[in-house]
Amino acid sequence: MTVSWVTKPAAATLLATLTLGAALTAHAQDSLPRGWRGQGFVGSTRIGLAASYQPNLLSSAPRASLFSASVAVVPIVSDHWEVGVNPILTRASQLGTYYQGTLAVVANYLLGSGDVSRPYAGGYLSETGATHSRGSAAWGIQAGWLHFLSPTIALRAEARFRQYLGLAHNSTGDVFVTFDPYIRDRANERIEKLPGLGVFDATVIADLELRPGTVGQINGAIAPFLARWLQVGGREMFAFQFDQNEGSHYLELFGRGYLPVDRRIVPFADLYTSVTQQTREVAPDHSHGERVGVRGYLTAGVAMDIAWEWRDYTEGHGGNFVFPPHEERVMTVSLTTQFRAARAR
Questions:
Q1: Is the dihedral of CA 277, 281, 283, 287 positive or negative?
Q2: For the chain, how big is the Rg over CA atoms in Å?
Q3: Please, what is the Cα angle at 94 between 90 and 95, to 5 degrees?
Q4: What is the pLDDT of residues 75-103, one digit of tens each?
């Protein structure tokens, strides 16, 4: 197996997603608010939310469970400053209960002027505490470019360095590209109608770690609406360790049905199938399952999904081990960004 097995499709996915973002209107409605490009950055708050709860983590230990949650709130408080926090909490339970929590503070200075696109540079501080272990701290710096595609979605490219105190690998450096959702306190983006044909979800997180090792990761998804009540799509996750010439590729295809009874809160149900391929494995791992949940629109172009997932695995392979078919259950909370196709101007 060669490096191109992962890097070529991953690069193609990233290129396609970034091209997509440049050619789209990042908005779930018919048109963007007039004059939004002249409103500036102030009043926008970057938000992030990812949480999961997995009971019965191990079939041999039915009481084992894992909960994790990460929240980011980073408002742009002036024409040049964005300052925010990112708390992270993990709770693991098996024979006992183990907690780990991190509170991070980030501050970025927006350089120059402009209402849509500007470079920035800033700093980072964090403190971590955990059960039965000593606390640790970290500091860092970052620089990047922020480009708003709409009032509520921005394309962010950033390079960052983190120095950790008291860890084996005490420093990291990476570059990443992502779509960031924003909430604006002015001109609240009301949802006039639910998305339909021509609108689709699209997310991307591309991260290249340069130290302590060279590791590339790309997570992306695209899911067009065929009607207000029907959506199909797929998601891919690539990871590659360049120094060890090994990686993994996850591909999922799904169909989702909505019950469009309300503009803000929409119940849904999924059916999906997936395959995971490791570079050193001969046979890929297959799984399939279903999800049920609700979608809430925080603002036009930004949705929050709360879902309960059932996943059934077929026989899996890991090195010299073969894993029997097994089940997995997990509850997730996540944000997705939503786009509407727009003609080139």
A1: negative
A2: 21
A3: 125
A4: 999 999 999 999 999 999 877 889 999 99
